[in-house]
Amino acid sequence: MSEQNDQSTFDDDIPDTGGVVSKEQILTALSTINDPDLNRDIVSLGFIKRLRVCGTNVAFDIELTTPACPVREQMQQAAQDVVSELPGVERVAITMTAQTRQIPAVRNLIPGVKNAIAVASGKGGVGKSTTAVNLAIALAQTGAQVGLLDADIYGPSIPIMLGVPEGEQPMGTEENGVQMIFPIERWGIKLMSIGFLTEKENPIIWRGPMVGKMIQTFLGTVLWGELDYLIIDLPPGTGDTQLTLVQSAPLSGAVIVTTPEQVAIEDVMRAGRMFEKMGQQGTPVPILGIVENMSWFETPQGERIELFGSGGGARAAQAFGVPLLGQVPRQLEITRGGDAGAPICATQPDSPAAQIYHEIAGGVARHVATLAMQGQRGFEEGRALKTMEELVSRKGADI
Ligand SMILES: Nc1ncnc2c1ncn2[C@@H]1O[C@H](COP(=O)(O)OP(=O)(O)OP(=O)(O)O)[C@@H](O)[C@H]1O
Ligand SMILES: [Mg+2]
What we know:
alpha/beta, 2 domains, 9-stranded mixed β-sheet, 4-stranded mixed β-sheet, 33% helix, binds magnesium ion
């Protein structure tokens, strides 16, 4: 779990001694603020924690459903505004925290991992691994605990993209007679690759059942610790191997990567149908959105050239009724970052390309959080989680 304290507004010193306004008044004011994804006010969603009033001072936490919440600042500002407007209030101290929600239906095969998200595509070379790497780093930069699992048994490329030196192997340990593996840490994320365990000189010919067994062993033996998100880079295609992988991992959702041209779209539709088929078989894997990669090439003069046509990502998103999470340009820095083991999100976090990955990460995180909240009992019926009186009178509660 990740908690982020914004030191500039954090004020733990304010005790609860009562003051110019009641907790009801504050909660009523805050209940005018809606979470745009959940379409519900932040009080009934249970986001307000540790509410204290002391004289003219008010302090509380807003606990978001993910540290990667893109509307974090707006929500804090709105809360600051409505509470400051209450008569007599002089100072409002808000601490933004996050408790990443977990999709309840997900079988919890990986202890400590709240959400596992697959990055998939119907076809090779569209930029899955590049997307997976930068998505993982962008999520970690919001304060989330993130792991990256390279499940591409045919051509593991993630260790190279993250700059793991040739020959570096993860450390092992034995727990109750079982061999466990510690992931390697790079750029603020934990990394595990099947490539660490396979011999480069004598590549194994993998068949479906072997892959499933391998992935299950893998999932059960990596000591990830507490993770908000585990990003899984899937091998290209939609064959048996991919199906086994998807069935073996307890996925919260999938991100599908495509390029803008027509052929790629057909592949994307195949990938999407693979996840839909999973749903029919009782293992629903929601598609969280589409990433369109190599959308255009930008010349040093800033001119955009659409190399592979346009509109593919939007069409795929529309076909599946999911958001287009972002369009990533084809940029030399991105290729170089991958080749050099220094991903653009890590080395140039303020660059326009890194910003796009941040938007994608925000979109993924909020979609997962929304699904998780919708999956909670009571949410679907439109019932407020707690009435105002319940919230205020809860004994021993943290509000
Ligand atoms: N937006 C981009 N701009 C520039 N280069 C990119 C971009 N996205 C990916 N690349 C480059 O394209 C190549 C293929 O990308 P990547 O390995 O991520 O694709 P993939 O879909 O994972 O491939 P595979 O199907 O083989 O696993 C790499 O050299 C990568 O650096
Ligand atoms: Mg790849």
